[in-house]
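User: Continuing from earlier, I have the next pair ready.

Assistant: Great, send them over.

User: Here they are, in order.

Assistant: Folding the first of the pair now:
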Amino acid sequence: MPATTSNGDAVMRRTQILTPGNIGEEIVSQEKSWQEKFEERVAKQQAKRGPLKEGKVFEHGPAKFLFIFIIGFVVITHLAILVVMMQSGMH
């Protein structure tokens, strides 16, 4: 059973492992690592969402906004440069 703190969180204990092939210190944990907990939360959230809708390019709203902003910025910049070049007489 792992040691616990006053608020109930599990604490990792260090144990000395002395075997002929492996001499050293190893961390022994009775609880799941933070990465395993994170992966479980992500898996639960993905399971709640359901299947993707066909033909939907962007699932993430901010990514859609950023994509449209960048495309619009490039188009407006090209048009502005074209107008400046036409006014100055360059071809």
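And the other member of the pair:
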Amino acid sequence: MTRKDEAYNYIKNEIILNHLHPNEVISENQITERLNMSRTPVREAIKELVADGLVMFRGRENVVTPLTAADVQEVYELRSLLETYALKKTINIIPIVALDKLEDEFEQAYQANDWDAYLDVDTRFHALITHLSGYPRLKQFLNILKAQTARTRHVSSYNPHRMSRSIEEHKEIIKWIRLRNLDEAEKALAYHLQRVYDSVGAYLNYIN
């Protein structure tokens, strides 16, 4: 991992975990001191985060991009369109053994009530759909959208029922992918993403 990648991952995680809040100034000095690196990789990382839409320039300062209700709606609608399209390209080649493993890991996360483990499995499940598409630009666009939606995921942990419901939604998607039933798999995926969007109101209340 390069120093730029290290800085990128650090700042991105701070934003996703809401340790850096919307409109908060990102201090290059603090990051260079915390990560014990020069300004150059930090500045390169910030430029990449600007391209991802997580950071914006405001005058001479770098600030965390605010996330409005309209932003969230746009991001989830686009993600649903692109991810269901990716599913069309991958449904017949997604390995059943990979689905079995992910389903087991979802269940383990639920039994342990481990939100972080659940989020990790969720990330890998959706990445599986995208990465097998063979469309690098589709993967790139979805990764940018997922970086935006990731900002809402940890706050959903305040809903005690969200993990169990989400896992059931994932199991429904997995069931139809196993059967290579595109119509039902698309419906299940779109329904899941809509339910995630519906739960984001708690996040918007939290940051506002």
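Worth noting for the second one:
The chain has two domains: 3-64, 69-205. The beta strands are 55-58, 61-64.
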